[in-house]
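Go through this pair.

…
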Amino acid sequence: MTLGQKIKQARLELGVTQKELVGDHITRNMLSKIENDSATPSVKTLEFLASRLGLTTSYLMSDLTFSDGSSPDGLDEMRNAYKEGRYEDCINLLQNSQTAGTTDEGYLLRSLADLAAAREYLAALDFEKAKYFADSADYYNKQGLYYSAEIDAEMSLILAECANVLAPEEFEENAKEYKRSVESISFSARFEIAKAENLCLTGKTAEAMAVITAVNGDLTAELSAKKEYVIGLIFKTDKNYADACPHLLKAEELGLKTAALFTALELCFKELEDYKSAYHYATMQK
């Protein structure tokens, strides 16, 4: 039996649906492709499916050849097809060469080719095929080392656009994924924090505070720490040391460990006549 036949037979013997088998690990559509031998699963997907089906991974991988990650990667023909805009040829070549297709570079190239094919079918208003290739781009983008938030974002947008035609009830789920992926690649909050810091350093503390307090949303710990630091810096610049300290300390708690932060804390504690704390932060600068 082929790999797909093995998986399908085991699933049917267990009496579970495709959706029940995959859970949240991969999409039902991707499992359907794997069962039809039109997609090559990664090793981690095979391990997951084997555990769910009560099989050994070695049973599923018998007669399969996976890359060990060594060079050369054997992707020259696939790269040429992609560069020439022959995206489905690229996909078929990757599918037919399990060794090259299961390298990290192979997964990246597959996700790029799938996304490019999805774009073309969306432009041609073939929403079924656009959805098919966008689903595939989603899967391969998450299999290898080179996950791309940009691919994730565009794939989710294409799926949302397809949903409006094929299944409107799926729009919100895809829209949510799109917003998540866009937020992960957005630099707007980082820029606004840097802008506020610059305004503060140039003496425009009122403008700086207006900018920094407008920075909201789900910030990373790093950005949250920098935001707290800048707020503390603004209060310090205005000689409001009592209000500056809590924000500067919060920045430290969130992981910021810079000489500029420790210098600001030393000065604030000196002005508040907490010399023990001031000495502590003076030693932190060495």
